Amino acid sequence: MSDATHPLLPPGTPLLRRSADALQVGGIDGADGLLVGTAPDAVTTLLRGLDGRRAQRAVLADAGAAGLDPGSVTDLLAALRGAGALVDLEAADLLASDAGPAATVRAAAELAAARDGTGSSRWHARRGASVVVEGATRVGVPVAALLAASGVGRVSVRDTGVVTAGDAVPGGLAAGDEGRPRATAAADAVRRAAPLTDLRPPAPGALPDLVVLARPWAASDPLVAGLRDAGVAHLVAAVRGETGVAGPLVVPGVTSCLRCADLHRRDADPAWPVLAAQLTAADGPPSGAALTCWATALAAAQQALAYLDGSGSPAALSAVVELRPPDLAPRLRRWPPHPACGCTAAARPPTAPGEDAPGSVSGPGAPQGTMAR
């Protein structure tokens, strides 16, 4: 490990005294822990000082000045990395952090979470990402606030409507916003969550990294075709009736698209196009309990960050994460590429015997082999 890396121990990591000469680092709630048996007071001070703002060489120099053996400290840092308890930041990550003591405190917890599949920091990329949320809904605004609070640098919410009494939800639009333009009220909600987030839409000619479609039946929206043609990734996040849906997450040319899902629905129910036309004719009243809206927003934000960070394959690729009250346990409904769509070069052949059919649901208590209507 380079001495130029900046080690960060997440501030919430427990440092517990097991005895007068033994310190336990982490190891709570199933996480891997580490036992340190040398100079626990000095080591505690050292570890609490790992805020990511000093290069490892500076940490070792300060440890030596405090009477600790730099070689032992190097071994300790390596052991913490091996346990997944330490995050190594680069100079670009620090430059991407907002200035000021309040911003530093807010970012400290988020820095540790912004990692890719190898455990490397993705904070710099997250700060440089741009997300547009289409729809200042009871799901859309909390998603925008969560993404901004998680460090996404530019988050804008598009909506031409006016706030109604039913739009209010904790962490989103407030009761006092009734009568205000939704876009303005949504920007205020995002600003409350992350005051230094850039709330401007992408510059003319620039494309966002991700668009979140927060209206219940966005699949037939003309906007979707434009996103697909432009190669912009897009994620559905909404509550339909009482069911929260996060996904599909569409990466044009790579995953199935929203038209694929419509074609699978049509295969299962020939009347689906008639039903879809009625569902998309106009925005319905706000739906979903507050807890369902928030669970959906959280699931959608998780999928969005997994995509932006490259931390793994988001569950919503060619699939939908569904959450239904009262348990809100996530269930996965798969929507593979449809052979008649042509959106990818790898359109899936008909379902093989024993294989889950498109639209089937998996997860705790999920009915098997059923198509969403």
Automatic annotation (TrEMBL):
Listed Pfam families: ThiF
SUPFAM superfamilies cross-referenced by the UniProt entry: Activating enzymes of the ubiquitin-like proteins
Record-linked InterPro entries: ThiF_NAD_FAD-bd, Ubiquitin-activating_enz
Region (Disordered): 342-373
Source species, domain of life: Bacteria
Molecular function via GO: ubiquitin-like modifier activating enzyme activity
Residue intervals of the THIF-type NAD/FAD binding fold domain: 129-198
Protein name, per record: ThiF family protein
Organism: Geodermatophilus dictyosporus
